[in-house]
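Memo to structure team: turn this sequence into structure tokens by end of day. - J.P.
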Amino acid sequence: MEIPLPLIHGPFLYCYVATLVGQRNKRLPVYIHFIPALAAYLLLSGFFVLPFAQKIYVYQHHGLGYEKLTSFIRLPIIPSGIIYVCWSLVLLRRHRLNIARQFSYSEKINLNWLVYLTIGMGAIWLSIIFGNDISTFLLVDVFILFIGYFGIKQVGIFSNQEAGRPLLAGASLPVETVKVEVPPIEVEPLKYQKTAIDPDLMSKIHQELTLLMQTEKLFQEPELNLDGLAARLGVSSNALSQVINTLEQRNFYDYINDFRVEEFKRIALLPENNQYTLLSLAFQVGFNSKTSFNRNFKKATGLSPKEYCQQHKINPSTED
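Reply from structure team:
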């Protein structure tokens, strides 16, 4: 029974990753991935119907009479494992790009832990090829412990909404779009979902977007996402993404976090804010973790927040 089992390890990993990141191929039935394992069990069916005593005899003599069959079944096991590990890593890379296109934050949804564990699965397969049973079972035990711990901790990321767009599980879009002091953009909500936008309309959307960000400072919302911002503007998320990518030459993640960095630089210079710590000011402008703040600030300015403050003679509070 255990001989074909490794043929389902890769498919289960891939299906888990695909489901978690919302990239499951609906045109390809899940059972397709398990056909090799099913075929292997069918090939072994002749052994399963043997009398009990004969099964014991075959087992005690190391598969006597079934050597070629078991060798044939084991042949695709290692390629299958490696292929599904690589396929899972491709999905996780796409997921990271999707985060940058749709979210202004990455904490709790970046799935870095799953990337490391998928690489760990690759290490297990390498141990099977080049190592021994001790190294393989040790890696498997560690893998199970970590995937159990992080899998339970992981929050939902994408959930299907009526509009068919991925959202952070538990988040909700505002029912009404926010009014700004420019004429509403007259576009059908889904009209530009999969087509290029007219340059004039793109410019108009960009103007309204810029005004909305400047007047209402929506970047201060820690969990702002592309769908929520598009809903406030009354356009599709695809149209808004095209505008940001084309006219701002950035993805949504960098666009929002650059606003946060600039706002931090502005309020950090105000003398009345010296009573606050750098992290307090970072939370005020929309960052939701110290790591995200430091990473994005360094990326935008080339300096760490402390180096920037020293350079501009800013003396924030050091109290927690």
